[in-house]
Structures are given as structure tokens and as C-alpha cells.
Write a structure and sequence with these properties.
The chain has 176 residues and is α/β, with parallel strands linked by helices. The protein is built from 7 helices and 6 strands. The protein has a single domain (5-13, 26-170), classed as Vaccinia Virus protein VP39 (Rossmann fold).
Length: 176
């Protein structure tokens, strides 16, 4: 069953008790090139992107990583499993490794929050299947609305579609 644009909007505007950005990312889900079996969503927030993935691909097992305990509990509603804690935690990395390898890893607006994003990507490629791929998105901080919202207002731009760089990389193209 496909999630309608209305349901996607409802999910994005949903609960007001969430911290950080934790809305659904239909723009990222549209970038999925083939049906995934095992998905790892890094910085999964409340798990709403996992819901979109599972609506579109009912056989997919979506695992999430979320450092915020409240969001991690909410993500459990939509995910196969959620690892609560930061990616650089040894225990989290061990759990991720035991559940993989993943044929899709998503890093949607999360790499810019890490102290060492190159090392994070290095760790993630170790748990990626040989034919797996990575979808990343990063805010375009040079766009005036991103600068205004992040720098001045302290929040995420409301209409972020044109203000993000979304990239899909196959495992054969990644060499760190």
C-alpha cells in the first residue's frame, strides 16, 4: 500500500511532542531504486520514514539508530528494531553489525551533526551488503531559507525539498 501525499503530510505535521526533526521523508523514500530487504535508517527520529518504507515495501525490515530516547521509543512503532544511542558507541555498532548486512542505509540530514562524518560513513560501509547502496541528504546551508531558519530562527526550513542535496551511492562506488 502506498502512502498518499495527505498521509505523508499528516505524518510530517503529526505529534508536537517530538524534539528535533523527526518527520517522514517521502523525498528520500522515492530515491529507493529497488525493494530493500534490510534497511538501516541512521538518525531515524520518530520512525516515520520507516513507516513510509514499510508501507511501500511490506517485506522490508527497517532498523533505526536514534540517540534521543523519546524519539527512539516512538520509532519502535514503525521499525523492526531501534538501536538507542549514538553511532560511535561500541555497543550500538556491535548491534548494527549483528543485524546486517544492510542493502540500504539512509543518512537523511544526520551526517552534518557528527563529529567525524567520514569515519561514520566508513563504519556504515562495513555493515553494507556488497550490492547495497547509501542514500544521504545534506542541507544546503548556502540557500537563504536554510541560513535564515537554521542560523537566525534556530529551526529547519519548512519547504526543504529544493534546499537539500540528496545522493544515492552504490557500494561499488564508495571507497573510504
Amino acid at each position: 500500500m502506498t502512502t498518499s501525499w495527505f498521509e505523508s503530510l499528516r505524518l510530517r505535521l503529526g505529534r508536537k511532542d517530538r524534539r528535533g526533526y523527526s518527520g517522514a521523508r517521502p523525498d528520500v523514500v522515492r530515491m529507493i531504486v529497488h525493494e530493500p530487504a534490510l534497511v538501516l535508517d541512521v538518525g531515524c527520529g520518530a520512525g516515520l520514514t520507516a513507516k513510509l518504507i514499510r508501507d511501500r515495501y511490506p517485506n522490508a525490515h527497517v532498523f533505526g539508530i536514534e540517540a534521543d530516547p523519546k524519539l527512539a521509543r516512538q520509532a519502535c512503532e514503525h521499525s523492526t528494531s531501534v538501536f538507542e544511542g549514538p553511532l560511535n558507541d561500541e555497543g550500538i555498532r556491535s548491534q548494527i553489525k549483528d543485524s546486517g548486512p544492510y542493502d540500504l542505509i539512509i543518512c537523511a540530514d544526520v551526517l552534518e551533526h557528527m563529529l567525524d562524518p567520514a569515519e561514520a560513513l566508513n563504519q556504515l560501509t562495513r555493515v553494507m551488503a556488497d550490492d547495497g547502496y547509501l542514500i544521504t541528504s545534506l542541507p544546503n546551508v548556502r540557500h537563504i531559507s536554510t541560513f535564515w531558519n537554521l542560523g537566525i530562527r534556530g529551526g529547519r526550513p519548512q519547504n526543504a525539498h529544493a534546499k537539500l542535496q540528496i545522493t544515492v551511492m552504490h557500494s561499488s562506488l564508495i571507497s573510504l
